[in-house]
Design a protein that fits this description.
heterotrimer; A alpha+beta (about 170); B alpha+beta (about 800); C alpha+beta (about 290); A: about 170 residues; alpha+beta; Ubiquitin-like (UB roll); DNA polymerase, domain 1; 5 helices; C: alpha+beta; Uridine Diphospho-n-acetylenolpyruvylglucosamine Reductase, domain 2; Uridine Diphospho-n-acetylenolpyruvylglucosamine Reductase, domain 3; Enolase-like, domain 1; 3 domains; five-stranded antiparallel beta sheet; 14 strands; globular
Chain lengths: ~170, ~800, ~290
């Protein structure tokens, strides 16, 4: 018979690393990542799914971590902003092209909404053929669902193009 | 050779941690802290008759519950009126926790401390507060009618009557060839940073000292407030603003109740306590701004030159006035804009309403001022059948009229004297950028596609960089690292980069060696705060002066060592050398070591310094009037604010079937004097424009007659996504400020100020109906256009029968 | 804003899900996509005693397409349906409407069936179920039941389903022959709930005359309705049908509400405009299909 619980121990892969946490079943994934797993890069802007600051990748797809219970990702793979860069072989990090592009294009100011954009855009760019020209619709899919109060979005859109071009040229 | 970094689009230093998710925002701090949640009033105006906490007491994880009755000493007094003013005759502030009466939905009544936020909310939900509802006042008109009072002892609901005048306006109007009068409204919006407010407090019982992190724009003042209210000595309180996820003004108010209550709880409980506000709390218990009713009468001649201007404003101040009447004062004094106004009178009544308090939101009264002046210009142009740009041009202050004295007193208590500017230059650039003179072709083309096209413009002047002062500290360490600090705060403006650019340029050191700290009272204790587009002006100049002080001392020491004259030396890439004689040099970091004549050599740098030591027995190691160390602290205190300016234009297309409004072009010309980092300035402008568009077409706080905020969530309070923000074309003009060493003017608020005015003008131009209330949405535009009583513009009446919208 | 306490089960069979729902009683709620439910929980507007998470139940995540129509399983995410070309060919309304649902991140998690079970009058998929004359299959302890759309939607956010039950799929009948569809909505911001949305089906006879016109709207009534607008254009050749008249007829048949985003009159205006625009597009598609036969 399936158990009905108030707490669960979950095991999941976060940024490629197996992690375990014991959480109340009502713990939102956003809170579990930030407080139980110590990954504070994912931010909470509204807790009603509208602003997108909490967006992470679950099994590669962008989702609102404030609209998921932590127990729902038991056994799944989660990627947060902290997992976008890759370790190099000298103890440093190789940034994802979208991270470099954000700095290059001044696509962040206060940085609070930024992780939600980075995960969403990284997923979008990783999935597409970077040699194909970016359509406005694709850019909108990658940036149109997240709120930013600082930048006015122009530089964020530039960063998408910049990152795609980098990925195309490196391929 | 170091490229001078001042004026370069240097990529931001702070990005390195922010793009990898290593920013440290308030809620990222203190994982083991206790959590706070609040029971907040569900009523807009009510007397508290009972607080029953019984059912909360058995919530496991509950630690403490506080009500007003638990507050003692200064904590039991009302919150301070930060900026008193003789005309603020009836200031009122709330208590940290409500005492007897609540005056807006959201006012904090009970504080709950628990082991985590989930449990704190569980306990809060079980607390039953009983209320006796009182009559509610919502909106400036209701406040003015005063059938009910927000504060019993302020029966007319008037907190302040702000009044400035430059001459006798009534006879001037009477003598004017023409006059017109009109009334218009602008509605509430709010800063809405993506990160809400938050406070973390830790009391060190051994040391008897308090450390507070707050997501604030004014850490130094929060420190002073906490020390005063909790009766601690200032030296026993430190306040740090961590990474802050946006402010836009809402975080300048202080002390928020929570900024006092959380430290109080931390001391009482002997534990770390943290509160991170959620979005609903932010909507109902932070601050809003913008609502005004404006009654304007203007005298003018047949050419459209203004002869007299008389403005009456009802300004919605919300339930309390902790920030004084800064916003209405800014409206009053910035209204005159870039124009010659021979006689001006402004009277602004700040009225109480049973709604969230009104304190500065980016623009801080200037958007309202611009709306008043620019829509007046539009009406004059319409009456006379003259081009709206031409009417404005005829009234502009000319470049040879600076400094221009408006004979008004600004928010800093100093005269409104424009220091420099070129308003005709702005106008010319704007007309070119937006294609003002060729819009008829666009209009025809749009009509062929079944759309109504309109164009509008708005100009503004913005007083920036008000005092009283800011300070900067620059210190070179023996490691070569250059520490820079200032007391004001950062919320995304790139201060760590811009201030580093200034020091790199002034001192001749690589920017990589420079580390900037802002908003930390441990590092810099005297400051005012980040607001009024003042950080670059104030701290930028203070830091430049501090860097110059370091340079002067470094050259003095180096001159001694290199046996040269200080004026023959230069610093480049951290190396001091004799000009034109490479090889005769000493690293700046070695000078730093030498500047502190230690008895003990701790490291290699210290040991190496000995080879440069001169030994003059006739002088003490540290000269009289000198100090050890290669550092300098300096302050910039301005004589007056410095006045930036700009001009925006918008082209809109309206679908006459659905009344949807599309901004097809948005042009900005702005002038903020010398620019430290053009990339950062442009980012500020773009962000401001998005808020301007939001305020013109999407954002409005909807209070019903019971004082309930109907749209207290991001689902229903419509901040723009990227799809709602038009592409912005930007041109620049530079009229340096003569008032400060770097020639800088502020840029932080430029993007938002004229948005509502320009867009209102464009929509009015498109549909030919008078727009006298903003923001406007498609449903409201539909109502306006189909209402037979809505006023046609004269231009529209003139177009009747031509097939274009009338 | 954090949810009130609840208990949680994530059964891995349908039978177990129903058993838990039975045991936990009226306070138990099914959790699938959670994109509508989680905000309600966080805002404490809903406080179920137990959440029964069906995301681990197998066999609920497929889209089955036959000549009769499209069956969408309870765990099919909006984006999965959006990208299903076979489904789009058989019933084009599905992709057209789904494209208007929120933003991609929400669509990655939210489900078509979940939207229908949520019965939100501002939801697109409830309208589409009605317009296509669809139905849902509900698993109950007594066995599966089919509920026609007309019997399903009882009020705003309220369905006729009671007792332990799991909606396991929704069935959308295929687009009839000689027909075309279109869907359009007006929202304040892209991705927001519609201020007004319209979905239409136009069916022609063999001579390309208008045989039937049906429309269903979003954010215009408290439960989905299908309006028959045929009389405005019946028998007219498709090229000269007065779609504006159909729009005008639709305006007389709806009774929208006023809220903070739009007045009732404005919604009514949009009903007329969107009906006309979508009918034009649907008619063009129907014409193309008649030509191809």
């Amino acid at each position: 018979m399936t158990s009905v619980d108030t707490d669960r121990t979950i095991t999941l892969t976060v940024n490629g690393v197996p992690r375990e946490a014991t959480v109340p079943v009502r713990r939102l994934l956003s809170d579990a990542l930030r407080h139980d797993l110590g990954l504070t890069g994912t931010h909470v802007g509204c807790e009603h799914g509208v602003c997108g600051a909490c967006t992470v990748l679950v099994d590669g797809d962008p989702v609102r971590s404030c609209l998921l219970l932590a127990v729902q990702v038991d056994g799944h793979e989660v990627t947060t902003v902290e997992g976008l860069a890759h370790a190099d072989h000298q103890g440093g990090q190789i940034l994802h092209p979208v991270q470099e592009a954000f700095r290059e294009c001044h696509a962040l100011q206060c940085g609070f909404c930024t992780p939600g954009f980075l995960t969403t855009i990284a997923a979008g760019l990783d999935k597409r053929d970077n040699a194909a020209e970016l359509t406005e619709e694709e850019v909108d899919d990658m940036v149109g669902g997240n709120l930013c109060r600082c930048t006015g979005y122009a530089n964020i859109k530039k960063a998408v193009h910049h990152a795609n071009a980098t990925m195309r040229d490196r391929a | 050779m170091t490229t001078k970094l001042f004026g370069e689009p240097v990529r931001r230093r702070e990005d390195a941690r922010l793009i990898i998710g290593k920013g440290r925002y308030l809620d990222d701090i203190g994982h083991t802290a206790l959590a706070a949640a609040f029971v907040r009033s569900p009523h807009a105006h009510a007397r508290i008759t009972d607080i029953d906490v019984e059912r909360a007491l058995d919530v496991e994880g509950l630690i403490a519950i506080y009500t007003y009755d638990d507050l003692t000493g200064p904590m039991a007094e009302p919150l301070p009126v930060l900026i008193p003013h003789p005309q603020l005759t009836a200031p009122r502030t709330n208590y940290p926790l409500a005492r007897d009466i609540v005056r807006h939905v959201g006012e904090a009544v009970v504080m709950v401390i628990a082991t985590d936020r989930y449990i704190a909310e569980d306990a809060a939900e079980r607390i039953v507060v009983s209320y006796e509802e009182l009559p509610v006042v919502v909106g400036v008109d209701a406040a003015h009618a005063a059938k009910a009072a927000v504060h019993d002892d302020v029966p007319d609901n008037v907190a302040a009557r702000h009044h400035q005048e430059t001459g006798d306006v009534e006879p001037a109007l009477a003598a004017s060839p023409r006059t017109l009068s009109f009334t218009q409204y602008i509605e509430r919006s709010a800063s809405m940073p993506m990160e809400g407010k938050g406070v973390h407090a830790r009391w060190d019982a051994d040391d008897r000292s308090l450390r507070v992190y707050s997501s604030t724009q004014a850490s130094t003042s929060v420190r002073a407030a906490i020390a005063a209210k909790l009766e601690l000595s200032l030296d026993k309180v430190e306040v740090i603003a961590p990474d802050v996820g946006g402010g836009f003004g809402v975080k300048i108010v202080h002390p928020w109740p929570e900024e006092l209550l959380i430290p109080m709880a931390a001391i009482a409980l002997g534990a770390e306590v943290k509160w991170a506000e959620d979005r609903r709390e932010h909507f109902i218990s932070s601050a809003h701004e913008r609502q005004q009713r404006q009654d304007i009468t203007v005298g003018y001649d047949d050419e459209g030159r203004i002869t007299a201007l008389d403005v009456r404003v009802l300004h919605d101040h919300g339930a309390y006035t902790p920030y004084g009447i800064i916003v209405p004062i800014i409206t009053a004094t910035q209204l005159v804009g870039p124009y010659v106004i021979p006689v001006y009178r402004v009277r602004i009544d700040s009225v109480y309403t049973n709604t969230v308090i009104v304190t500065p939101y980016r623009g801080a009264g200037r958007p309202q001022a611009c709306y008043a002046m620019e829509r007046t210009m539009d009406r004059i142009a319409d009456e006379l059948g003259i081009d709206r740009a031409l009417v404005r041009e005829r009234n502009l202050i000319q470049p040879d009229q600076f400094p221009y004295d408006h004979h008004l007193t600004f928010q800093d208590g100093r005269p409104v004297i424009y220091d420099s500017g070129d308003y005709p230059g702005l106008m010319d650039k704007l007309k070119t950028l937006v294609g003002w003179d060729s819009v008829d072709a666009l209009r025809t083309d749009a009509a062929a596609r079944g759309k109504h096209l309109g164009i509008g413009m708005a100009l503004y002047v913005e007083g920036t960089g008000p005092g009283p002062y800011e300070g900067g500290h620059v210190q070179v360490l023996g490691s070569g690292k250059v520490l820079v600090s200032t007391g004001l705060t950062s919320q995304g403006q790139g201060h760590e980069t811009a201030f580093a650019q200034i020091v790199a340029s002034e001192l001749g050191v690589p920017i990589e060696d420079i580390e900037v700290t802002t908003g930390d009272t441990r590092r810099f204790g005297y400051a005012v705060g980040t607001f009024a587009s003042r950080a670059a002006v104030m701290s930028g100049n203070a830091i430049a002066l501090a860097a110059r002080g370091v340079r002067e001392k470094a050259l003095r020491i180096a001159a001694d060592v290199l046996e040269a004259a200080p004026e023959d030396l230069e610093i480049d890439e951290g190396l001091i050398q004799v000009k034109g004689v490479p090889g005769t040099s000493i690293p700046l970091r070695t000078v730093a070591v030498l500047s502190n004549p230690l008895r003990y050599a701790f490291d290699e740098a210290a040991k190496q310094a000995t080879q440069f030591t001169t030994h003059d027995d006739s002088k003490p190691p540290v000269a009289v009037g000198d100090a050890p160390g290669l550092e300098h602290r300096d302050y910039y205190s301005p004589l007056r604010s410095t006045f930036a300016s700009g001009a925006h234009a918008a082209i809109v297309e309206i679908d006459p079937a659905t009344w949807e409004i599309d901004i097809v072009k948005y042009a900005v010309v702005h002038d903020c004097g010398n620019v430290v980092n053009p990339m950062i300035v442009e980012g500020q402008v773009q962000g401001g424009v998005a808020q301007g568009v939001g305020g013109a077409l999407y954002e409005r706080m909807v209070y019903d007659q019971d004082g309930q905020l109907q749209n207290a969530s991001y689902m229903d309070f419509l901040m723009p996504y990227s799809s709602e923000v038009p592409d912005v074309v930007i041109d620049h003009q530079t009229t340096p400020s003569p008032l400060n060493p770097l020639g800088i003017k502020g840029a932080g608020e430029a993007g938002v100020i004229p948005g509502t005015a320009a867009i209102a003008s464009a929509i009015e131009d498109a549909v030919g109906r008078r727009i006298s209330s903003m923001p406007i949405s498609p449903t409201e535009l539909y109502d306006l256009v189909r209402n037979p009583d809505s006023e046609l513009t004269a231009v529209a009446a003139g177009r009747a029968g031509t097939g274009v919208m009338a | 804003m954090k949810p009130a306490p609840f208990r949680y089960a994530d059964p891995d069979t349908l039978e177990e899900a129903l058993a838990v729902l039975s045991d936990e009683g009226a306070g138990a709620k099914v959790l699938a996509g959670g994109q509508s439910l989680l905000p309600l929980l966080s805002m404490r507007l809903a406080a179920p005693s137990t959440l029964v998470d069906i995301n681990r139940v197998p066999g609920l995540d497929s889209v089955e397409v036959t000549g009769d129509g499209v069956t969408v399983g309870a765990l099919v995410r909006h984006n999965a349906l959006l990208g299903d070309d076979a489904a789009a060919r058989v019933q084009p309304l599905l992709a057209r409407a789904t494209a208007n649902v929120a933003h991609p991140a929400i669509r990655n998690r939210g489900t078509t069936v979940g939207s229908i079970a949520h019965a939100d009058p501002s939801g697109e998929m409830t309208s589409v179920l009605a317009l296509t004359d669809g139905s849902v299959t509900v698993a109950t302890p007594a066995g599966p039941q089919t509920v026609e759309w007309r019997d399903l939607f009882v009020g705003p956010l309220e369905t006729s389903i009671s007792g332990p039950a799991v909606v396991t799929s929704a069935f959308f009948p295929a687009l009839p022959a000689r027909s075309g569809t279109a869907f359009a909505e007006v929202a304040r911001r892209k991705g927001d709930y519609a201020v007004c949305g319209a979905g239409v089906v136009v069916t022609l006879d063999a001579d390309r005359r208008v045989e039937r016109v049906r429309a269903s709207y979003v954010s215009v009534g408290i439960t989905p309705e299908v309006l028959d607008l045929t009389e405005a254009v019946a028998g007219k050749p498709v090229d000269s049908a007065d779609w504006a008249a159909a729009g005008a007829l639709a305006r007389t048949m709806v009774d929208p509400d006023t809220d903070i985003h739009a007045s009732a009159d404005y919604r009514r205006l949009l009903v007329g405009v969107l009906t006309e625009r979508t009918l034009r597009d649907a008619a063009a598609e129907a014409t193309a299909r008649v030509t191809c036969e």
